[in-house]
Amino acid sequence: MKEIKTGMNSTAETTVTAEKLASAVGSGSLDVFATPMMTALMEKAAAAAVAEAMENDETTVGTMLNISHTAATSLGMKVKAYAEVTEVNGREITFKVSAEDEKGEIGNGVHKRFVVFGEKFMAKTNAKAEK
Prior knowledge:
The structure is a single chain. Helices cover 25% and strands 42% of the residues. By secondary structure, it is α+β, with helices and mostly antiparallel strands.
């Protein structure tokens, strides 16, 4: 792993489609951008922020989210998520995350990711199913 520094950042963007509505993913009954979809977009931005520091079989996995979804977003609108590294503690990385649609902020919070070796991680995960 190359050095991960505070301030590393990235963005991720999407357009709210029918598949990303709360009514479609089961997180609510209304036709608005689903909280799980906003969360996934924030995680995508965070993973991208440190992707260039990963070497060989290294990757990051999400371990904690503490977010607020503060405003609704309609079908067809664009959403952008931001992630910035605020702390690095060994292989644990803390990010400040936020999301906005075309009218302003819709969510914010803190996200943590952990650096793992992909093959080892998947072997351990798959072994759970064999027990």
